[in-house]
C-alpha cells in the first residue's frame, strides 16, 4: 500500500503551483490602490492609512456572504458574477456610515479544487473591487474533501464564499441617523433585482427548469454596487441616514438607522416594482407583507434627507444612471408601515 499524502487525500499543493500563483497575483494587482503595501502573496496585508487623505479617519468594517444564490450559479454553470455579489454585499453595508471602502479580502471553501470555477469567482471579486474602488489585498482558499459534499456530479463542486471589507470615514462626517427628524424624506434608489437576498425562498417557488432558463438568468443578475453614487451624494448633500435594503426588506432594515422614537411610512405605489418581483410573488402565492419583509422590491438602497434636498439628490443619482423616488417619510410613530 502506497503512503498517503495530503494531495492523495484530495487537497492539491496550491502554494507550489507557480502558474496558479501568477494568475491569482495578477488579478489581485489589478485592484491595487494607493495605500496598499508589500507583496500580494504574503501572510498578511499592510495598508498605509495616511494615503487615504482622510484627516481624522475612523475605520469601518463589514463582512457578508452570498447565501444560496451560489446554488443558482452552480445550476447555470455561471460563476463570473457571483464575486461581484460578494463585494457588493459587503461594501454596500460599509457605505451606510458614509465610509469609503479601502480594501477587501475573500474566503473560498469547497470540497474539490476546480481552477476554472475559482478563477471565474475571483474574476468577479476583482471586478467588484474595481467598481467600488477598493483593493483586493488577500484571501483564503480552503479545500475540504468530505466536508462539502454534493450528489449533483454534473455541476461544479459545491462551494461557499465570504467577504471582508474595511473602509474609512472622517470622524466629523460619519452618517449615523441621529439627526433624522419627523418629515424627512425617504429616497429610494433602484436595485438591479433581488441582489443576494431571499434565494432560499426563490429556489423553492421556481422549478429547476425555470431556474435553468430565463428566470434563473434574471435572478443571477449581480447586486448593484452603490459606492460611487452614495459617496457622491454624501459629498454634495447633507444625508442624514443611509439604509442598505438587504435581508429583512423594509421592515427590518429601516429601524436600524431611524431613531427609536420615530418610524417610517412607505408608499408602495410611489415607484414601479420590477416585473420579476411580481412574477415571484404570483409563483409562490406570497403575501404583500412577506414580499416587502423579504425582498428589496426594486429599491436596493435608501437615503434619508430633508425634503428640500430631494431634487438635488435625484440629479446626482441620475448622473450614475440610477432612478430614485421619494418613497416615504419619517413619522412620529415607531415601526415601519408599507401601504
Walk me through what this model shows.
This protein is of the alpha+beta class. It folds into two domains: 14-173, PurM-like, N-terminal domain (60s Ribosomal Protein L30, Chain: A); 185-338, PurM-like C-terminal domain (Phosphoribosyl-aminoimidazole Synthetase, Chain A, domain 2), CATH 3.90.650. Helix content is 32%, strand content 23%. The strands form three sheets. It has a six-stranded mixed β-sheet. Strands 3-6-4-5 form a four-stranded mixed β-sheet. It has a two-stranded antiparallel sheet with strand order 1-2. It is globular, with a radius of gyration of 21 Å. The model has no long low-confidence stretch (mean pLDDT 94).
Question: How are the elements arranged and paired?
Answer:
Layout: H1 18-29, E1 36-37, E2 46-47, E3 57-65, H2 69-76, H3 82-94, E4 100-110, H4 115-132, E5 135-143, E6 159-170, E7 185-190, H5 199-205, H6 208-212, H7 214-219, H8 227-236, E8 241-244, H9 249-253, E9 263-266, H10 275-284, H11 288-294, E10 299-305, H12 310-318, E11 324-331, E12 335-338
Parallel strand pairs: 4-5, 9-12
Antiparallel strand pairs: 1-2, 3-6, 4-6, 7-10, 7-11, 8-10, 9-11
Helix pairs in contact: 1-4, 3-4
Amino acid at each position: 500500500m502506497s503512503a498517503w499524502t495530503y494531495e492523495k487525500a484530495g487537497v492539491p499543493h496550491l502554494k507550489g503551483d507557480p502558474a496558479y500563483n501568477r494568475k491569482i497575483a495578477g488579478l489581485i494587482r489589478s485592484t491595487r490602490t494607493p495605500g496598499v503595501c508589500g507583496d500580494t502573496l504574503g501572510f498578511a496585508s499592510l495598508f498605509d492609512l495616511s494615503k487615504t487623505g482622510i484627516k481624522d479617519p475612523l475605520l469601518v468594517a463589514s463582512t457578508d456572504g452570498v447565501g444560496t444564490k451560489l446554488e443558482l450559479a452552480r445550476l447555470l454553470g455561471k460563476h463570473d458574477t457571483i464575486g461581484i455579489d460578494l463585494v457588493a454585499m459587503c461594501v454596500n453595508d460599509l457605505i451606510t456610515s458614509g465610509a469609503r471602502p479601502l480594501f477587501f479580502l475573500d474566503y473560498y471553501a469547497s470540497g474539490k479544487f476546480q481552477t476554472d470555477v475559482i478563477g471565474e469567482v475571483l474574476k468577479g471579486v476583482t471586478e467588484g473591487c474595481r467598481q467600488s474602488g477598493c483593493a483586493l489585498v488577500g484571501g483564503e482558499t480552503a479545500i475540504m474533501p468530505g466536508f462539502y459534499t454534493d450528489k449533483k456530479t454534473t455541476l461544479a463542486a459545491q462551494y461557499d464564499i465570504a467577504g471582508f471589507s474595511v473602509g474609512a470615514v472622517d470622524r466629523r462626517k460619519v452618517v449615523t441617523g441621529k439627526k433624522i427628524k419627523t418629515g424627512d424624506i425617504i429616497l429610494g434608489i433602484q436595485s438591479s433585482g433581488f441582489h443576494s437576498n431571499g434565494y432560499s425562498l426563490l429556489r423553492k417557488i421556481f422549478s429547476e427548469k425555470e431556474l435553468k432558463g430565463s428566470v434563473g438568468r434574471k435572478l443571477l443578475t449581480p447586486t448593484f454596487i452603490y459606492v460611487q453614487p452614495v459617496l457622491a451624494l454624501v459629498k454634495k448633500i447633507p444625508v442624514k441616514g443611509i439604509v442598505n435594503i438587504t435581508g429583512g426588506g423594509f421592515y427590518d432594515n429601516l429601524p436600524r438607522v431611524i431613531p427609536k422614537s420615530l418610524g417610517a411610512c412607505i408608499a408602495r405605489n410611489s415607484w414601479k416594482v420590477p416585473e420579476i418581483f411580481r412574477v415571484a410573488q404570483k409563483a409562490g402565492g406570497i403575501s404583500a407583507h412577506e414580499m416587502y419583509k423579504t425582498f428589496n422590491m426594486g429599491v436596493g438602497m435608501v437615503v434619508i434627507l430633508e425634503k428640500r434636498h430631494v431634487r438635488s439628490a435625484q440629479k446626482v443619482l441620475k448622473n450614475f444612471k440610477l432612478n430614485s423616488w421619494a418613497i416615504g417619510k419619517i413619522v412620529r410613530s415607531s415601526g415601519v408601515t408599507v401601504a
